Amino acid sequence: MSGNWTFVCATGELLPGEMKTVFDEVTGTPIMVVNHDGEVYALEDKCSHEDFELSSGTFDPVEASIECVLHGARFDVRDGRALCAPAYSPVAKFPTKLEHGGIWTRDDRD
């Protein structure tokens, strides 16, 4: 994928502790974007244990983790790594950029 970035929202619309979901305009991949202490992270919105959206889970700003509501798997929002069973594989992490007053992300997998 080249430089096809997907607009998430204006920077002021995603405050620390908040998350939004978008679909990559090219691949159709669901992406969850989280503001953790002013840093913006993007992960595939899909639990690696079972195909279920992570964004319906609970974000823990102390641990910087998101918990899947289905079976309680937790992932670090900063790098996508699995923090506990039943998930053992990480979720895909995507690049983000702040540009022109907005937050952007993209599925950069080939």
From TrEMBL:
This protein's UniProt keywords: 2Fe-2S, Iron, Iron-sulfur, Metal-binding
In what residue span(s) does the Rieske domain sit? 6-105
State the PANTHER family in the record: 3-PHENYLPROPIONATE_CINNAMIC ACID DIOXYGENASE FERREDOXIN SUBUNIT, FERREDOXIN-RELATED
Specify the protein name. Answer: Benzene 1,2-dioxygenase
SUPFAM superfamilies reported for this sequence: ISP domain
CDD domains, per the entry: Rieske_RO_ferredoxin
Organism from which the protein derives: Pseudoxanthomonas japonensis
UniProt cross-references to InterPro entries, sorted A to Z: Rieske_2Fe-2S, Rieske_2Fe-2S_sf
Q: Read off the Pfam families from this record.
A: Rieske
